[in-house]
Each structure stands twice: as C-alpha cells, then as structure tokens.
Amino acid sequence: MKQGHRTANWLLERLAVDAAVAGDILEEYERRRSRIWFAKQFMVAVCAGVWNPVRDDKLIVLRAMFIGWGAVSAWSLLIGYPWQLLRSWPPGPSLAPAKVFLNLLFLLATNAAVAWVLARIEHTRRAITLLAFLIFQSACYVYASYEEGRRLVMDSIDQPRFRPYLRFMWANSLRWSWALWSAAY
Amino acid sequence: MPKQSYLGEFELVVMLAVIRLGEGAYGVPVYREIEEQTGRGAAFGTVYATLDRLERKGLVRSDLGDPTPERGGRAKRYFRATAKGLRAVRQARQVLTKLWRGLSELEGEIA
Question: Which one of A67, A101, B79, B81 has the lowest number of neighbouring Cβ atoms within 10 Å?
C-alpha cells in the first residue's frame, strides 16, 4: 500500500465509515483514482456513516450526551479534590504557564477518560457517539465562553496583542478533539 | 392485498446492477457497473445507503467475504437479489412499460 493510501486507510479507520465501504473505496483508489475522487468518496462515506446510525436509532445522540455528561461528572468527582490542591499550587496568577499547563492537562485527561468510557459502552458505533458528544461539548463550551470569545474576536480585529489568546482557545478545542479521538481508538 | 415494495430510480439501477453481476456483486463491481451503464459516477456511500435500504426491505441480502490486503484487510460484502427483489424489479418494469405505451411524444425514442 502506498503512503497516500496508508493515510487514506488511517482516516477511514478513525471516522464513521463502514468497514465494507472503506474497503471498497481503498480498493478502487488503488486502481489509479485521483485524490479528488477519494476526497468526494470519503466525504460522502463519512456523512453516510454519521447519518445512517442516527436515522436507525435516534436516541443515540441523547445517549451519547447523557453517558458523556455522566462520565465527566464521575471523573470530576473522582479527581476533584486532588485537582483543587493542584490548582492552588504553585502560588501565583491564574494565567501562569504552569497553571495553564496543568489546566490543559486536566482537560485533556478528562476528555480521554470520557472517550474511553463512551467507546467501550457504544463499541460498534463509537465514531458517531464520540462525534455527538464532541458537538454537545463544543456547544456547551461556546455557550459558556460566548461573551469572552466574542470580545476576543472583536478586540483581535484592531488589537493584534489579543490574537495569541484567540489562537490558544482554538488550539485548545483541537486538543480536546484529539484527546477524545485518540483515547477511543 | 400484500404491501408492495416500489423501487425508486436509483434503487432500480442498483437492483439491476446486482442482478447483472450475480455471484460477484460486492461494492466495487456494483459501483463500476453503474458507472459504465449509466455514464455517471455515484459515491460508494450513496450506493451502500441504497443497498442497506434494499436489504431492510428484503429485496437483497448480503454476506461477508474474505478480507484482502488492497482493501486494508477489510472484508468484501457480497449482495444478492432475493426472490422478493426479483419480483419488485419485474413489477417496476411492467409499470414503466404500461406507462410508456401509447405515448406518441416518445415514439421511436426507445432503442
């Protein structure tokens, strides 16, 4: 299998694509099909892979939200106290690099733990479950930090010094998604 | 009177491709057959969504074959038309033929 095809295989494995469909796409891609052809097939297969389980079982999204939320709560209860201790150390402002790093570590560990739980409960449909939870989590995040985000975006337009914060927020959301997907697969 | 399974246009195309291919009807040959016969390329996702729908209606059935290296170790899913599926295709043909008959605007259009 060529390098490009290995990447395609990796992508198909990790997204909501049925094994038989993924196999057919790869087999046809090996037969001198273009990257544009692959991109089209990939997009349609992912959309179908996401939509079909939701159409067959409409409660899957609600289940993902409840299980994910339950896992977040259990995780927070489990390590809440040690985490409070960690947050007060080292002494200093809340945006000190060490504290920011610890905060990020906690968020990534939380997402990894939630993804692990979700992937084991909904083993056969883990991609759609993870995606549903990720959308739910992102919606909560946007709702909670909407004002802050809006202010940052507005301020960043004429004041470049705010842009690193905006980049940091964006990078964090990517890290969350990465942690979620990596722990599940 | 038993409930009849009406076939949509693409469902009919996929059914005919599966019937034409016989034993070797898995995703890739079905896709190529549709592309060759209709002159337009469909997406595998669309073909499989249609095949899944046909299977739920009981018009086709599927079995898993052996995995191969060029497919990243994934198994082929072979499809075969059921007796109900063959009846549905015959019925679709009869309905279309009846509708076609006597249309003077379309006389001579059929090859």
Answer: A101
| Residue at B27 is within a domain | yes
Q: Which of A145, A148, A123 is nearest to A67 (CA)?
A: A123
The pLDDT tens digits for B25-56 are: 998 999 999 999 998 888 898 999 899 999 99
Q: Which tens digits make up the pLDDT trace of A101-132?
A: 777 777 778 778 888 888 888 777 777 788 88
Question: Does residue A90 have a cis peptide bond before it, meaning omega lies within 30 degrees of 0?
Answer: yes
Total domains in the fold of chain B = 1
DSSP A130-170: HHHHHHHHHHHHHHHTHHHHHHHHHHHHH-GGGHHHHHHHH
Q: b/e for A93-103, b at 16 or more Cβ within 10 A?
A: eeeeeebeebb
pLDDT for the residue A1: 56
Residue A150, number of CB atoms within 10 A of its CB:
10
Contact A23 B27 (CB under 8 A): yes
A52/B69 CB distance under 8 A? no
Question: Which residues share a beta bridge with B81?
Answer: B60
**Nearest Cα residue in chain A from B73:** A23
Position B1 in a domain: no
Residue B79, domain member (yes or no) = yes
Scanning every residue of chain B, which has its alpha carbon at the shortest distance from the alpha carbon of A30? B70
Interatomic CA distance for residues A140 and A136, integer angstroms:
6
DSSP designation for B2: P
b (16+ CB within 10 A) / e for A50-61: bebbeeeeeebb
Residues B73, A146: Cα–Cα separation, whole Å: 45
Per CB-CB distance under 8 Å, the chain B contacts of A49 are 45
